Predict the 3D structure of the following.
Amino acid sequence: GEKSNLVVYNGFSDPCGWDKEENMVHLNRPLYELFDFKSSNQENVIIIDRIEDFVNHQSELQLINSLHKLSKDSNVSQVIIHCSTDVLSESFLSALSYISAAKIMLKPTVPCICKVVFRKKSGKLIKAHESFKLSDKFVIQNVIVVEKTVPTSQDETSDVDAILAAQTTFNLTLTEEQKFAKNKLLLPHQRIVSVHGGHIHYTPDDVDDWDEDDPDEDLDI
C-alpha cells in the first residue's frame, strides 16, 4: 500500500536513553536534536504530547529554547504542543505562550468550552470564546461563538517578566507587602529637600587635615 508519512516517536519506554531502539525519544536531549529533517524535502508538522514529561528530564530554559529553535527550522511548518496546566509552573506556561502563535484552552464541560488566543506577527492579539459538542465519532458539531474580542496589543512587560522568571531560580517579583515597604522607604538623598536650591552638607572627620598654610609656598615659581 501507500507509504504513510506519519512517524511516531516513543518517549515513554526509554526516557533516559538506556536502551537503543529505533524511533525512541530520549527526553533529556534537546528537542531539535531528536528529529532528522536533513533528508526531508517537505515541510513537517511536529505534534508533541505531554510536554510536561520533558520538564521532568531537562530544565525549563533548555526546553523553551529548543521549542523556539525547532519552530524556526525551515523544514518545520508547525509545532503543536499538548500540555497540562496543572503540573507546569506559571513561568514556563507564560514563556510557552510568548513564543507561540496561538493558544487553545479546552474545558471538559457540556457543551465543551474552547478559548483561543491568536497572536499576529504585528503583535496584536485576537481572542475567541466558543462552545461546541462532539458526536459519537468525535466530530465537532454545533459550534457557537460565545465571545470574540477585538485585536489588542500584547502586554510586553508581563511577557518579559515571564521569560526572565523561566531563566532563573531566583524570585524576581515582589509581593504586595514588599512593594509597600519599598515605596515607603525614604532614601538619604530624599531626606533634605530645599526650595532654595541644592546644598552640600559635610561633617568633618577626625583624620581631616585642616592646615590652612599654603602647601606651595616653598616653591620658586
Observations:
- The first helix runs from residue 52 to 55.
- The CA atoms of residues 72 and 78 lie 9 Å apart.
- The mean pLDDT is 75.
